[in-house]
Amino acid sequence: MTTNPSPQIWLYDTTLRDGTQCEGLSVSIEDKLRIAKRLDQLGIPFIEGGWPGANPKDVQFFWQLQEDPLKQAEIVAFCSTRRPNTVAAAEPMLQAILTAGSKWVTIFGKSWDLHVTEGLKTTLEENLSMIRDTIEYFRSHGRRVIYDAEHWFDGYKHNRDYALQTLEAAIAAGAEWLVLCDTNGGTLPHEVSESVTTVNSHLSFVLCQKSMTNDVDVPAASRRVGQRTIPQIGIHTHNDCDMAVANALAAVMAGATMVQGTINGYGERCGNANLCSLIPNLQLKMGYGCITEHQLTQLTEASRFVSEVVNLAPDEHAPFVGRSAFAHKGGVHVSAVERNPLTYEHIQPETVGNRRRIVISEQAGLSNVLAKARTFGIELDKQTPEAKQILQRLKQLESQGYQFEAAEASFALLMYEALGARQEFFEVKGFQVHCDLVEGKETSSALATVKVAVNGQNILEAAEGNGPVAALDAALRKALLNFYPQLAAFELTDYKVRILDGHAGTAAKTRALVESGNGHQRWTTIGVSANILAASYQAVVEGLEYGLLLHSQAEVAVKA
User: Fold this and answer.
1) Contact (CB, 8 A) for 391 and 336
2) pTM of the predicted structure, to 2 decimals
3) Would 81 disulfide with which of 130, 308, 325, 332, CB 3.0-4.6 Å?
4) In the chain, what are the domains?
5) How far is CA 355 from the centre of its chain?
6) Do 82 and 95 form a contact (C-beta atoms < 8 A)?
7) Do the Cβ atoms of 43 and 295 come closer than 8 Å?
8) Residue 373 backbone dihedrals phi, psi, to 5 degrees
9) Backbone angles phi, psi at 326, to 5 degrees
10) What is the mean pLDDT of residues 286-306?
């Protein structure tokens, strides 16, 4: 017995072009190559690499990919139609696109008559010539063309007949895809549906009429009317109304077969349609084929990889791939999920490469504590005094300003301590921090002195840092490195401070969160004190302690 394959949706990633227009995002050539190869592994069919000729970086990027091509994805060069009152063959910017060597080229042209007359300062007829001439030029050089109808939905609203004429011009010239762009991001899903439906029916009608007179010669595509092929419809949406994903899905439901977007929704202003939401919605919810099931399990890792490369903090609350996407905090929720995950999860987290997290906080019940303990390999019984002691201690500390949902490593240490299983790698005897002020200005370094005991031996060390916390961290490592060489691989990756009860002024408590890593894992620890240095030091100390605990457990696992 055979089953019908899922209808195909062609994914088109524009992270490396449209996504780089995101405020605060900047990438090098090497960054772009790394992202392109990761998207290739993810199974994205079309990857837009940039605008060769617009800047040296994009030129070099395409040259490098000629030397080291992608495995399965088509790399796409992007540019505009030719300028008014010229010819495509004489346009230097179009020559640069040919030199880039990509089989596919995406051309964008004006759909909105306002942009033609006010932006380009030309006539509506000349704009149609620009579209036809540019596409015909690339077709004559053996390139396959995707036509991006810029500001399509605005043009469609203000002058429907002319907007449709621009698509007819692209068809006549040989475009294989017509991508309808919500460039301003101001369209709503019902408007997208109506427009895409109209375009599909209009193009079918036009091609039916022209096929009889042999007026149109369109290259390969997937739909046929009589003896003529009709370009497929794509959708490109922006998120200015927080509708980019919804609009893209609406377009697919109305007949679009290509979806353009970016990883993590990066893009100008409010961003583009987020492929990390679109892909699982299309594939898991709507039954379309996008990438393989195995590639889908890499989605979360790909999202975090890209955010790491572009040096932007990941959105922890992002659907599907965010750290909190499958996090459960309320005791009732945790208890239900433990019995059956379907009670509070719309998909299995592993399907998209994510995982379930049980969040610990003052709202937690014993179910949270037991579930969280299991993630650390600790089996507890709710009837045991240790379980109740952990819950009581948790609530007591959270009332003092601790926040264990953001510091799971500190909570693990708390559990081990309640169970009498907390290893004592070292004991802190005390510390001092000295910061000089020169002519009223703080110098660039601080000096910290620490005293610790390891195996009954007292060690006193001092170290400098570019601030008091960095100096404390350096002094601790210096004191402990001879005993624990693995500390050389540890690094402090993030440091956050929050003032609690601000009305208390300088006497307010401070909460310090320190994120540490060893190159393979990351963990967060917490400290709370009226003294900002004491709070920071507590978090730093526990960060080192937890890292040593992970190393110790890994050694035990290897020996076993």
Assistant:
1) no
2) 0.73
3) 130
4) 10-291 (3.20.20.70), 327-418 (no CATH), 426-483 (3.30.160)
5) 16
6) no
7) yes
8) -60, -40
9) -130, 40
10) 95
